[in-house]
Amino acid sequence: MRSSAEKRNKKGELEQMQANNIDSNRAFVNDRARTSLQLLHKGASTDHGSNLSHTTVEGVLKHVNEARHEDSPRFVS
Q: Could you give the CA distance from residue 41 to residue 64 in angstroms, rounded to a whole number?
């Protein structure tokens, strides 16, 4: 049987792993969003407005969500 100190240590390790996973997921989504915005901005500026409908927040969020589902093994549900 484990001692209470061992249980606390194991719980602390699990909490740290969860925090690291959350930080990793947040960084991944932020990076995808940043890349999406850069690509959308580039498209809008080179097409002189023909892609402006795709530069909405909803469009960016849709793109990020699609990217998130493509790489879903990285995310804990």
A: 15
DSSP 3-state of 1? coil
The Cα–Cα gap between 29 and 68 comes to 7
Secondary structure of residue 71 in the 3-state scheme: coil
Q: Where do runs of H (alpha helix) occur along 1-77? A: 4-46, 57-70
Tokens of 16: 């740290």
Q: Is the pTM of this model over 0.70?
A: no
pLDDT tens column, 50-77: 444 455 677 777 777 777 666 555 545 4
Domain boundaries, the chain: 4-74
